[in-house]
Amino acid sequence: MALRFLCPNCHRELEVPDEAAGTAGQCRLCGAAIIAPAAPGQPAGLAQPPGAPPPPGGYAPGAPQAPTGALDLGAIVNEAFQLATRHWALMIAAGVIVFVLGSIVQNVPESLLKALRAPQAILVIVSVGMALLMLPLQYGLYYVIDEILLRGNSEIGRLFRGYRQWGNFILTYLLQVLATLPAILLLLPIILSARQNGNVANVAFDSPLHIVLALAASVLGTYIGIGVLFAPLEVVDKNAAPVDAIKASWEAVEGRRLQIVGIMLVLSLIGIAGILALCVGILFTMLIPLFGLVLIYRQLRGLRGEWLREDLAGR
């Protein structure tokens, strides 16, 4: 026989074998960590109550975290700072690896092609190709943070985990670019005018129409950009397909765009505050926006670590 009950987080019906009664597991529909009822007719419980603060040292290994929906600026900044303080060495090392490899991949082929006097079209194609090659590595930072939040620690090798999802990351990125196309099209008259006049700075302010178009493009671009902002994290944490990732991100931010813009603005200002320390401090402060973005995502969508369970199961 099977034991049927409602998930205490998403309130949808689940079914498990009788021998699973009273044991902890994960809701297959929302990813929440739950405890199955000990007997039929009893309610299930949450293993990690929504909104509960993480214990010192991080969450239990691989424990999924249900979304809370709460976006408290102070709590997000504080937790991001604490995480950056505990894991600064790992994160700075990971960031340096991404930067160095990115510089090599982007600059070395370009320099060689220029030395060979390759056509501009070839330079553009190679440059785009190298950028796409580095995309999974850049998103590798999210794998590191995802594991830190789920297990309390991570390792440099997680940086390269994204190459297993290379195709999904590229398609998700292209969908993000396509989504912002309406905002880019609003700038087209300004771009064409700039090419004719040879002075981009003056074009934007010479015509009232250009000012209106620039403002409209900024508003529309921000609206769309926030809507698709968390799509890569859907691919990272939940192994989502590109279209599903875009949809999930868009739905998650509905009614919260201004709040997210405000939080991201504060996190960005904290990130660049390290410049005041002669640019040395920026190595630490730039970690706060990275952690902050994933913390916002956790509050909106929860963390399941599908990739992590796959890796641990394969060991």
Taking all Cα atoms into account, the compactness measure Rg is 23 Å
Helix and strand element order = EEEEEHHHHHHHHHHHHHH
Structural class: mainly alpha
- How many E strands? 5
Number of helices: 14
Low-confidence stretches: 50-61
Determine the mean pLDDT.
84
Shape: globular
Described by strand count, sense and barrel closure, the largest sheet is: 3 strands, antiparallel
Spatial sequence of strands, sheet with the most strands: 3-4-5
Distance N to C terminus:
33 Å
- The structural domain count equals 3
Proportion of helical residues: 55-70%
**Share of β-strand residues:** 5-15%
Keywords:
mainly alpha; 3 domains; globular; 315 residues; single chain
Strand-helix topology:
Blueprint: E1 2-6, E2 13-17, E3 24-26, E4 33-35, E5 45-46, H1 73-86, H2 88-115, H3 120-151, H4 166-179, H5 181-186, H6 188-197, H7 200-206, H8 208-227, H9 231-238, H10 242-252, H11 257-272, H12 282-285, H13 287-301, H14 306-313
Antiparallel strand pairs: 1-2, 3-4, 4-5
Helix pairs in contact: 1-13, 2-3, 3-9, 4-10, 6-7, 7-8, 9-10, 11-13
